[in-house]
């Protein structure tokens, strides 16, 4: 496998506050990379910074995002605009507001085609719109429907259809199914994974629901306080998460398969950007915290060739 | 079209309220100014005119209030608004029908210009927040804090008295006869410049500010972020995604502020002695010409309601959510 | 608090002070005539004199009180009405809401100025307080509309639902749970009403339907207009009063921006 997207030492600031600290991640061709963490962990900020969608006062003081040999952070506005959606598309959270309420879904798909495929005729664009809707299982006559006329699940499917309009290399899904009920959630994700197999794109799947990641992603990176604290293949995380935070996250959701586990949340609440704890940001909530945890931040080190963990417990083992 | 039906029903209720207020006011307030006028005019009133004034102002004490109300509606529906004291013996309805076109022309056109101009400037100011456009805000706030009529006075003093560039009063040059000739139309346009600019400058600020704030709010919506992620051009995002949504509350606001704007604009007509309803109202005040003043109020209310209904149609076209589900 | 808001409050405080002490510090009796007929601003008459030799500076100083009193009285009365109608409508919902909303909209849509002109000119004596009351009756509708919308969204919040579920009395919920959360909206409605009332009062005075026996900035403009000040080039007769109106209006608008930015953080300036 070869990487399609490499994020290197990316940091994000909001004013004087650092929301993301030196994150490095690699997305391999055709894989589903899961990004997990509670709200405020920096997972969405990371994705928006990497695609240069961050709104002021957010900014990227350092780091590199390499896509097909370009540094995304160094592209001009024009180069960036050409690359957007045609290479990296995004399925946004809360599809309710992600669709423009006053123009038809057909026109919103058409917009993408008109901006990126100026050679297409109106008829060709309409045909492509129909094709995309049937790809995600929506009757083609809904092309002229407005978002408020569709159910939540349908709107999310429209978002997916729109994301696939230009056959991108990468699709970023940011909490794509959070507002939907569990059944629709799994239908949509299942369909997304089948589409990935036929069309061959890579996915970055961002969600707070780690049980979905265990089920649908190949690899999972777990973020806490703006840092990646553990990264490993999904199966490894599920079988034996190393970081106490990963273990806590796994304990907060019921497992769909396998033996029943006791359901417990993580005590305490996610850290506030304005008053980050010293040392490991998780130590005030960590059941296994040691003295060193409050003093210094452990580095994200490889414990074996497929797993990286940032925890003093691991350092002690080595 | 349930949306339009509901709005139309509301406007009918409003019209009824305005007419009923018109009916009740002279009967509720102390004093009998109309009676005094009639006495003064004495024998110059013919019996028909006298009768309609009795009906309109409730001078016939023998009838019950309900009978008076029914008679009042009867008179209104016949188009009988009584005789004007100021323009005696012209019927009020005739005075109004002569001045209404002038008001519709001046206030209608300038209000639409101000709305379009202000909305467009607000779109840019909100989109390019933090740019030089922000300095527009205090300037326009100051301009909108000036009463319309005072700005009119200043305009006259600068552009008609100090630098005699434009006419200060009237709707067309004295001596011309209203007709479809180049000379007459030119004169009308020339006379409309100063009052028109006065109304636009006074009312544009409100639209700029309202639209700017809505743009700022809408720009933070997810669909604008999506539009950016889609790689659409800046123009397309700004108009089809941000402004297209931000303009909706502006249109509802347009409808609701119309009554206020028209009030200010009528004052501009007074200052410029423009031959519209505002000037007629002003002349009526001086002469305590109640039939005329009440007639002006009814006609203006009716015009504002019709304009409101038109704004609703615009809203309906722009917001699919108000259309019936299909 | 940012600079704009402070500036607005400063100007407002200045005019309030003038409203209180204007009568004492005025150099002349504003109605007293003199031999300095229609003279431009000078050391003796800072803002010049009128056709009959009255001192315009004194008229502006003395007239400030009438303007501020009407603004304050209307602000209080109309805000009270708007809370009564708006909060009730938003909180009760259903048919009561429909009826009260329709009522506010009727008042919003009907052009207020011609109506008030008719009422004022029918009144036997249109003095300051009576005019303030009449203006209040037409000025509450906008505030009621905004308050209704805010109350509606508050009503669905958890803490209000909790109070309702625990059987708290309706008026207690409104006074202790809902009203404190509406303070920013009420404040901005109050300031907006004061602007509206001041403008309307000045307009009515200018048109001449308000009693001319007490001075305010509008009556100054009325006399200027009816004596053809413009045609005679007596700019000093109408410029000072107009500028005062604009300054007061701007100050109130600036205060309202401050309240808006406080209530809606999205409008605050972005620090890049």
Describe this structure in words.
The complex is a heterotrimer of chains A (318), B (326) and C (272). Chain A is an alpha/beta fold and 318 residues long. Chain A has eleven helices and twelve strands. An eight-stranded mixed beta sheet of chain A has the order 6-7-8-3-9-10-12-11, sandwiched between helices. A four-stranded antiparallel beta sheet of chain A has the order 2-1-4-5, covered by helices on one side. The longest helix of chain A has 18 residues, at 182-199. Chain A is globular. With 326 residues, chain B is an all-alpha fold. Chain B contains twelve helices and no strands. Chain B has helices spanning 2-28, 33-41, 47-57, 65-77, 92-127, 136-144, 148-162, 182-219, 222-229, 234-271, 277-286, 290-318. In chain B, helix 6 crosses helix 8 (182-219) and helix 11 packs antiparallel against helix 12. The N and C termini of chain B lie close together (12 Å). The model of chain B has no long low-confidence stretch (mean pLDDT 86). With 272 residues, chain C is mainly α. Chain C is 72% helix and 0% strand. Chain C contains eleven helices and no strands. Chain C has helices at residues 3-25, 56-92, 94-109, 112-122, 128-139, 141-155, 158-165, 170-178, 183-207, 217-226, 235-263. In chain C, helix 9 packs parallel to helix 10. Chain C is elongated, with a radius of gyration of 22 Å. The model of chain C has no long low-confidence stretch (mean pLDDT 85). The chains are: A alpha/beta (318), B mainly alpha (326), C mainly alpha (272). Chains in contact: A-B, A-C, B-C. At the B-C interface, helix 1, helix 6, helix 7, helix 8 and helix 10 of B face helix 3, helix 4, helix 9 and helix 11 of C.
Structure keywords:
heterotrimer, A: 318 residues, alpha/beta, 12 strands, C: 272 residues, mainly alpha, 72% helix, elongated, nucleotide-binding (chain A)
Explain the layout of strands and helices:
The complex is a heterotrimer of chains A (318), B (326) and C (272).
Chain A: E1 3-14, E2 17-28, E3 32-36, H1 43-50, E4 58-67, E5 70-71, H2 77-83, E6 88-91, H3 95-98, H4 105-116, H5 122-135, H6 152-163, E7 170-174, H7 182-199, E8 202-207, H8 210-216, E9 219-224, E10 227-233, H9 234-240, H10 244-251, E11 301-304, E12 307-309, H11 312-317
Parallel strand pairs in A: 3-8, 3-9, 6-7, 7-8
Antiparallel strand pairs in A: 1-2, 1-4, 4-5, 9-10, 10-12, 11-12
Chain B: H1 2-28, H2 33-41, H3 47-57, H4 65-77, H5 92-127, H6 136-144, H7 148-162, H8 182-219, H9 222-229, H10 234-271, H11 277-286, H12 290-318
Chain C: H1 3-25, H2 56-92, H3 94-109, H4 112-122, H5 128-139, H6 141-155, H7 158-165, H8 170-178, H9 183-207, H10 217-226, H11 235-263
């Amino acid at each position: 496998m070869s990487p399609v997207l490499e994020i290197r030492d990316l940091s994000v600031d909001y004013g004087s506050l650092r929301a993301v600290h030196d994150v490095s991640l690699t997305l391999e061709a055709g894989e589903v990379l899961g990004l997990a963490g509670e709200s405020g962990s920096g997972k969405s900020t990371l994705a928006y910074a990497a695609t240069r969608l961050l709104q002021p006062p957010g900014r990227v003081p350092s780091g590199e995002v390499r896509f097909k040999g370009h540094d995304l952070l160094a592209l001009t506005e024009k180069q960036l605009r050409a690359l957007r959606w045609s290479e990296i598309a995004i399925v946004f959270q809360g599809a309710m507001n992600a669709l423009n309420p006053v123009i038809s879904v057909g026109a919103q798909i058409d917009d993408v085609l008109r901006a990126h495929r100026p050679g297409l005729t109106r008829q060709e664009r309409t045909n492509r719109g129909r094709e995309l809707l049937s790809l995600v299982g929506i009757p083609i006559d809904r092309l002229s429907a407005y978002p408020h006329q569709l159910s939540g699940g349908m709107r999310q499917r429209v978002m997916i259809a729109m994301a696939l309009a230009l056959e991108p290399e990468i699709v970023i899904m940011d909490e794509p199914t959070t507002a939907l009920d569990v059944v629709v959630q799994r239908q949509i994700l299942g369909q997304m994974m089948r589409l990935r197999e036929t069309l061959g794109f890579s996915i970055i799947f961002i969600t707070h629901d780690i049980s979905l990641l265990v089920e649908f992603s190949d690899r999972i990176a777990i973020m806490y306080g703006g840092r990646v604290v553990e990264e490993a293949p999904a199966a490894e995380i599920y079988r034996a998460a190393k970081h106490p935070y990963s273990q806590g996250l796994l304990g907060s959701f019921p497992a769909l398969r396998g033996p029943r586990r006791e359901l417990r949340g993580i005590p305490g609440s996610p850290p506030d950007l304005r008053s980050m704890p010293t040392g490991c940001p998780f130590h005030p909530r960590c059941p296994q915290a040691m003295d060193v945890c409050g003093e210094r931040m452990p580095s994200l080190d490889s414990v074996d060739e497929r797993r990286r963990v940032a925890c003093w417990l691991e350092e002690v083992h080595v | 079209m349930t949306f339009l039906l509901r709005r139309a029903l509301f406007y009918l209720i409003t019209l009824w309220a305005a007419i009923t207020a018109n009916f009740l006011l002279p009967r509720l307030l102390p004093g009998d100014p109309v009676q005094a006028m009639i006495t003064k005019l004495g024998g110059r009133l013919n019996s028909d005119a006298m009768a309609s004034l009795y009906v309109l102002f409730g001078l016939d004490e023998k009838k019950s209030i309900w009978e008076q109300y029914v008679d009042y509606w009867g008179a209104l529906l016949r188009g009988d608004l009584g005789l004007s004291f100021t323009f005696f013996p012209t019927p009020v309805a005739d005075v109004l029908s002569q001045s209404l076109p002038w008001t519709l022309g001046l206030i209608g056109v300038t209000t639409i210009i101000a709305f379009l101009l202000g909305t467009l400037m607000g779109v840019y100011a909100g989109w390019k927040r933090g740019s030089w456009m922000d300095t527009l805000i205090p300037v326009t706030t100051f301009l909108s804090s000036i009463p319309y009529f005072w700005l009119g006075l200043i305009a006259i003093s600068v552009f008609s008295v100090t630098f005699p560039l434009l006419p200060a009063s009237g709707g067309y040059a004295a001596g011309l006869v209203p007709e479809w000739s180049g000379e007459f139309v030119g004169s009308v346009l020339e006379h409309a410049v100063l009052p028109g600019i006065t109304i636009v400058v006074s009312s544009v600020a409100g639209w700029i500010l309202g639209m700017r704030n809505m743009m700022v709010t809408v720009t933070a919506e997810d669909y604008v972020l999506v539009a950016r992620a889609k790689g659409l051009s800046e123009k397309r995002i700004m108009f089809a995604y941000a402004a297209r949504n931000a303009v909706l509350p502006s249109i509802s606001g347009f409808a609701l502020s119309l009554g206020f704007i028209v009030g200010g604009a009528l004052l501009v007509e007074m200052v410029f002695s423009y031959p519209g309803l505002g000037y007629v109202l002003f002349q009526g005040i001086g002469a305590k010409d109640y039939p005329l003043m009440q007639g002006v109020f009814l006609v203006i209310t009716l015009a504002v309601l019709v304009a409101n209904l038109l704004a609703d149609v615009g809203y309906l076209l722009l917001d699919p959510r108000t259309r019936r589900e299909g | 608090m940012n600079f704009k808001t402070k500036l607005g409050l400063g100007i407002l405080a200045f005019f309030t002070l003038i409203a209180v002490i204007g009568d004492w510090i005025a150099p002349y009796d504003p109605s007293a005539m003199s031999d300095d007929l229609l003279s431009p601003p000078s050391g003796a008459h800072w803002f010049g004199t009128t056709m009959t030799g009255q001192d315009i500076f004194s008229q502006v100083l003395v007239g400030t009180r009438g303007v501020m009193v009407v603004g304050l009285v209307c602000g209080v009365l109309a805000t009270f009405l708007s809370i009564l109608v708006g909060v009730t409508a938003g909180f009760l919902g259903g048919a009561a809401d429909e009826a009260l909303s329709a009522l506010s909209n009727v008042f919003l849509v009907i052009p207020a100025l011609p109506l008030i002109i008719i009422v004022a000119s029918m009144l036997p004596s249109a003095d300051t307080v009576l005019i303030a009351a009449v203006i209040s009756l037409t000025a509450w509708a906008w505030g009621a509309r905004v308050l209704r919308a805010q109350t509606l969204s508050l009503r669905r919040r958890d803490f209000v639902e909790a109070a309702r579920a625990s059987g708290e009395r309706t008026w207690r919920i409104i006074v202790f749970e809902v009203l404190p959360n509406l303070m920013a909206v009420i404040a901005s409605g109050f300031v907006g009403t004061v602007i509206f009332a001041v403008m309307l009062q000045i307009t009515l005075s200018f048109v001449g339907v308000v009693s001319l026996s007490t001075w305010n900035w509008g009556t100054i403009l009325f006399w200027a207009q009816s004596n053809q000040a413009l045609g005679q080039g007596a700019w000093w007769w109408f410029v000072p009063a107009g500028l005062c109106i604009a300054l007061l209006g701007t100050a109130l608008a600036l205060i309202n921006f401050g309240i808006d930015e406080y209530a809606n953080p999205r409008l605050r300036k972005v620090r890049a």
